Amino acid sequence: MSVKLQSKAGYAFLAPALLVMALSGVVPMAFVAFYSLHDTFAGNSFIWVGLDWYERVLTSPEFFRALGRSLFFSVLVLLVEIPLGIFIALRMAPSGLMTSTYIVLMAIPLLTPSIVVGYLWKAMSLEQAGLLYEIAGWFGLAYNMNSVGVSWLTLVLMDVWHWTSLVVLLCFAGLRAIPDDYYRAARIDGANAWAIFRYIQLPKLRLVLLIAILLRFMDSFMIYAETYVVTRGGPGVSTTLLSHELVQTATVQFDLGEAGAMSVIYFLIILCVSWAFFTLIVPRERGREA
C-alpha cells in the first residue's frame, strides 16, 4: 500500500472522531462566537454590536486581574509538580512489585473526579475539624482559610496531590525508554548521578516534559470546580480565577455577550499556548524521522 493511500485510509478512520469533535466542540464554539458579537434581550432577541463586547472585556481591570491570578496559579503548580514528578520518577525502581504498587496508588488521585477532589480538600481545611487544621495546630500554626496565603497554599497543595502523579507516570515511562547503552557508556566514563541526569536523562525527557507541561498548564489554567468548591473565589476575590469570572458573568449576571467575548479570548489564549508547544514538539520529531 502506497504512503498516499495509507494517509487517506488514516483520515477515513479518523472521520468519526473528527465528526464528534466538530459536534461537541466547533458547533458550541460557533454559538459562543455568535453571542460575543450580539447583545441579547429575553434570551431570544439579538442585536448586532460587533466588537463592543471584546472592547469591554479587554478594558476591564477585573478581567486582567482574574487572568493574572489564573496564570499565577498555573505557574505555581508547574514549579512544584514538574520538579517533584521528575524527582519521584528518578527514585522509582525500573520494575518490581513495589513499583507496580506505587503506580496503582498514584493512579488513584488521577481517577478521582474533580468535584470530589474539591469537597475532599474542603473538608480537610475546615476550621476545628479539618485534617490540615489539626496538622497546622500540631506545629503551633493557625490554619485560617480567611487568610489569602493559606487559601492559595491549600489550592496549590490540592492540585499537587491531584496531578503530580501524571507527571510522575509520564517521566517514569520516558526514563524506561532510555536505552541501557547510554548508562553503560556513562559508567565507563565515570559519570556521577548528576552528570547522568544532566546529559542523558534530562535531554531524553525533553519531549515528555513538554507534553507534561502543556497538559498541566492547560488543565490548571482552565480549572474551575475544585478551586470554587474550596474557596468560592475568596477571601474577597483573591482566588477568583478567570474560569470563575467567566461563569459568574454568564450564569449570575447573565451577560451572554460579555461572557461570549471572554470565552473566545480564553480559547485563543489556550490555543496560542498549545500552538507554541506544538511548534516545539513537531520540528524535533520531524528531524528525528529525517
Describe this protein's structure.
The structure is a single chain. The protein is mainly α. It has a single domain, classed as MetI-like fold (Orthogonal Bundle). It contains 13 helices and 2 strands, in the order αββαααααααααααα. The longest helix is centred in the N-terminal third of the chain and has 34 residues, at 3-36. The chain is globular.
Number of strands: 2
State the major sheet.
Answer: 2 strands, antiparallel
Unreliable stretches covering 5 or more consecutive residues: none
CATH topology: MetI-like fold
CATH class: Mainly Alpha
Strand order of the largest sheet: 1-2
| Ends distance | 21 Å
Helix content: over 70%
CATH level 4 superfamily:
MetI-like
Furnish the topology, listing elements before pairings:
Blueprint: H1 3-36, E1 38-41, E2 45-48, H2 52-58, H3 61-91, H4 97-111, H5 114-124, H6 131-138, H7 148-176, H8 180-188, H9 193-204, H10 206-221, H11 225-231, H12 242-252, H13 256-289
Antiparallel strand pairs: 1-2
Helix pairs in contact: 1-13, 2-13, 3-7, 3-10, 3-12, 4-7, 5-11, 7-10, 7-11, 10-13, 12-13
